[in-house]
Amino acid sequence: MKIYLTPGPSENYFIVEEAIKEALKNKVTAISHRSKEFKAIFEHTVSELRELLQLPANFSMAFTGSANEIWERILQNCVEKESFHLVNGSFSKKFYQFAEQLHLSPSKYEVKFGEGFEVENINVPSSAELIAVIQNETSSGVQFPVENIAKIREKNHDKLIVVDAVSSLPYANLDYSVIDSVYFSVQKGFGVPAGLGVWVYNDKMIEKAKNLEAKGKSIGTYHSLLELDKYAKQNQTPETPNVLAIYVLGKVAEAMNKKGMAMIRRETDYKAELLYHTLEKTEFLSPVINDKVKRSKTVVVANVEKGTSSDVVAFLEKKKILIGKGYGSYKDSQIRIANFPTHSKELIEQVADFLMEYGK
């Protein structure tokens, strides 16, 4: 049986199969999203995620179809004219392009693919209403240290700060006192089948949406932030959602809480260090990111020094391990290895051994 270390979708968390069987047995997929049964599922999932992420009381949570959808919702609901974007890879660039497509006037601080941001070089225009921070760029494997978000906040008290943590949560230990929103999808760090986005937002985001609506700006329809929030307060969603995914996510968050985030973070650090150490030892692969502080702990990206990424992928696939190729124009010259909570220490140790064999 193949094991998926692709950076999303990735290997399912160990309790997912049992949770799906339990859900089907209890006919969770047939219940109404207005029923007391669904409200209980919604409430349980939100409660477990709040504990897992250590969310303050002034933050709320809504479910969408994907993290990509949340880009659009953020721009529609919380930007009147201008957003500011940190761009260093394909996904952070797409968020910026969404703003252009919505006929806003976005600005950006962009560095080359695979490079990190120097905080002292980030100058946010005074006209920007919202700052889009990419905490972990899935395409290039660069992380923005969470403590640097506070440095951005120090100079921008009047702006909304939203954080893309799609491939770093639940590992990322965010300081919610310096951000206004964070979002993620479930098929990466949470190991849940794809088809669900989670949007976490505070009261300032709600107030911005209300202000824009009062000015006559369209903030969307059934999935406007105000509509999502109205139903979330009742443990509901505006429309029939992916009930199965919400149910399974709640079970996964519950299992992670039992294990404890301290343990999950320690294991993630260990596995990441092992992978990067292996890449530095082999002459056929090398880390893309030289600065260790900026290396993602959850998506490890390497240059292929001998052959192509297809060669490495094929080599590992023979051993029943699936990894990702590089993203976009780097698909032939780089590989990406997921390091999520669902990937055990023993598995990563085995992968490290296999990588040392490659090219010999």
Provide a short characterization of the protein structure.
The protein has helices spanning 16-25, 36-53, 67-78, 90-101, 146-155, 203-214, 225-232, 243-259, 261-281, 309-317, 345-357; strands spanning 3-4, 59-64, 83-87, 107-110, 130-134, 136-137, 142-143, 160-164, 181-185, 197-202, 285-287, 299-304, 321-322, 324-325, 334-338. The protein has 360 residues and is of the alpha/beta class.
Please explain how this structure is put together.
The protein is α/β, with parallel strands linked by helices and 360 residues long. It has 2 domains: 3-10 and 261-357, Aspartate Aminotransferase, domain 1; 16-258, 3-Layer(aba) Sandwich (Aspartate Aminotransferase, domain 2). It is 39% helix and 17% strand. The chain has 11 helices and 15 strands. The protein has helices at 16-25, 36-53, 67-78, 90-101, 146-155, 203-214, 225-232, 243-259, 261-281, 309-317, 345-357; strands at residues 3-4, 59-64, 83-87, 107-110, 130-134, 136-137, 142-143, 160-164, 181-185, 197-202, 285-287, 299-304, 321-322, 324-325, 334-338. The strands form 4 sheets. Strands 2-10-9-8-5-3-4 form a 7-stranded mixed sheet. Strands 11-12-15-14 form a 4-stranded antiparallel sheet, with helices on one face. A two-stranded parallel sheet has the order 1-13. The longest helix is centred in the C-terminal third of the chain and has 21 residues, at 261-281. The chain is globular and about 65 Å long. The two termini are 25 Å apart. The mean pLDDT is 97.
